[in-house]
Write a structure and sequence with these properties.
The chain has one domain: Nuclear Transport Factor 2, Chain: A (Roll). The termini are far apart. The chain is built from three helices and six strands. Helix content is about 30%, strand content about 45%.
Length: about 130
């Protein structure tokens, strides 16, 4: 398995938890923005399609909206490596106060010269 894929999935979710769960510096949001391609899209756990600008607009207004949020990542699996891209699957668990929720996620990441960038994400909420 590509260690850079595991590192990127974990890094992205550390940033996301920091942004949503604390009074993070604006640079955290800038890093989140930079990680997504211009054509990024995602299918949310409730089935809505969200494009890059919609995600970034939501994130901009959601800073520290879930104080104390932790996001745990496990079971990262590279499903396939394509020409310049990687399809990965992982388990994402959100822990806040007394509530925990998990989702199985598939992500398409594109390799550029310096990093892996997020192209597409599909979340499936797991039963509690």
């Amino acid at each position: 398995m590509s260690l850079d894929v595991v590192a990127e999935v974990e890094r992205q979710h550390r940033l996301l938890a920091s942004w949503l769960g604390s009074a993070a510096e604006p640079g955290v949001l800038d890093e989140l923005r930079a990680a997504h391609t211009a054509d990024f899209s995602m299918v949310t756990a409730d089935g809505h399609v969200l494009h890059r600008q919609g995600l970034l607009d939501w994130l901009a207004g959601a800073g520290n909206s879930r104080p104390g949020l932790r996001i745990l990542i496990s079971d990262v699996t590279v499903v396939t490596e394509l020409d310049g891209a990687v399809l990965a699957r992982f388990l994402e668990t959100h822990v806040e106060h007394r509530h925990t929720s998990s989702r199985r996620v598939s992500a398409l990441l594109r390799r550029d010269r310096t990093a892996l960038r997020w192209v597409h994400l599909q979340e499936t909420l797991l039963p509690a």
